[in-house]
Specification:
The chain is an all-alpha fold. It contains 17 helices and no strands.
Length: about 400
């Protein structure tokens, strides 16, 4: 049944912080391992890593456990947060339209800075653009939002990619390696923006990715409309059952998908995208259900509660991970591409996550928002928020 979440008042939903904190961990691993294994190195180094059991093994771990499941969880949480903010503002009589447009514009500016000057793998700019689409369809009936969200969830990317194929000239070629291997920062930043425009704007080549994100936004918004979202602790048993079902099956399908893709299994190629399109959402669902199950139990909450602080400063943490990535691998720093292996960069990602987790716990003892969250909130409401935590 549909409903509102206005009776939550101003209470922060810590379950969402826990989920967001976990999703960040997955995003860190996928970027530091996946990009470093598949995108960054020259062909000769990549070929060497393909035969190294440590490098190949850590890439398989990243692909099976987090590839597209982490960003699925992250995108759905954006849609959920959108609807939560809408309902709370309506309940408090706030002009939601003006405030939310300012919020999206501010996120767009942060995303552009991050995309053009720090990290070419940024999604914040696209989140802001698609957040505007979500804003425009906010009056859509819940059942229709669910139906379209499910359709885009599974079919948005292949449909968008096919449209892009039709629109792209036959002689068009694009490669990210020339950008990743640029020698100086200025030329790298210029090339990164040019590549982003080529890969995501020109010829509609980003349409598949945008529809992929939008479908997850819509499902997240629909989930937050449901009455049971206000009483998650009452559904702890259901969450546990979902986790026990979804995680093993999802991970099995993801294993089949990647093993077919790298020819470990001599099966037809179509099995790879089909199993991945089902497996990644199941893994994301399994993670979410398991985390909710653990968080809503009095004896198990402490096992996952430590994820909440970094989830509260997710914007700051995300930009920090992009900054460190570019300092290590791109011309923003020493450009150690091909020197730091995927296995080593996995531990860099883990170390960064642990550091940000500790920093967020200490920071939130004294302050109400993360540094970028403070700036974002200031731009959203047009007035300087009180940063100091209440005694």
């Amino acid at each position: 049944a549909g409903g509102t979440v206005s009776d939550l008042g101003v209470r922060r939903i810590e379950e969402l912080d826990v989920l967001r904190g976990f999703a960040l961990l997955g995003v860190f691993i996928v970027h530091f391992v996946g990009l470093n294994f598949y995108e960054l190195p020259p062909a000769d180094i990549q070929a060497t890593w393909q035969t190294d059991p440590f490098q190949r093994g850590i890439s398989l771990f990243s692909d099976i456990f987090f590839q597209n499941s982490a960003n699925t969880l992250f995108a759905m949480l954006f849609g959920m947060s959108f609807w939560l903010m809408l309902e709370r503002m309506k309940a408090n009589g706030v002009a939601f339209e003006t405030v939310y447009i300012r919020r999206l514009v501010a996120l767009m500016v942060i995303g552009l800075i991050h995309l053009c000057l720090i990290f070419p793998g940024d999604v914040l700019f696209e989140y802001a653009l698609l957040g505007l689409v979500l804003f425009l369809i906010r009056s859509m009936p819940p059942r229709l939002m669910l139906a379209i969200g499910i359709m885009l969830f599974f079919l948005g990317q292949p449909i968008g990619d096919q449209i892009s194929t039709w629109l792209t000239p036959p002689n068009h070629e694009e490669s990210s390696q020339s950008v990743f291997q640029g020698e100086d920062y200025i030329s790298w930043a210029t090339s990164a923006f040019s590549l982003y425009f080529s890969q995501n704007i020109a010829y509609g080549s980003g349409l598949g990715w945008w529809l992929y994100i939008l479908g997850r936004f819509m499902l997240g918004a629909w989930i937050m409309q449901q009455v049971w979202m206000r009483r998650l602790s009452e559904y702890r048993g259901v969450a546990g059952q979902i986790a026990v079902f979804a995680l093993p099956i999802g991970l099995l399908l993801e294993t089949v998908s990647i093993f077919v893709a790298i020819d470990y299994l001599p099966w037809p190629n179509w099995i790879d995208p089909v199993t991945h399109s089902i497996g990644a959402p199941l893994v994301a669902l399994g993670y979410a259900a398991a985390l909710v199950y653990l968080f809503t139990g009095s004896s198990t909450q402490r096992l996952v509660h430590w994820l909440a602080p970094v989830g509260r400063i997710a914007l700051t943490a995300y930009v920090a991970h992009g900054l460190l990535f570019s300092i290590i691998f791109l011309p923003l720093g020493p450009n150690l591409t091909g020197i730091i292996t995927p296995f080593a960069s996995f531990w860099v990602a883990i170390g960064l996550y642990i550091s940000l987790t500790i920093a967020s716990i200490l920071w939130l003892k004294h302050y109400r928002y993360g540094p970028l969250e403070f700036v974002w909130r200031w731009a959203t409401y047009g007035r300087r928020p009180d940063l100091r935590a209440k005694a």
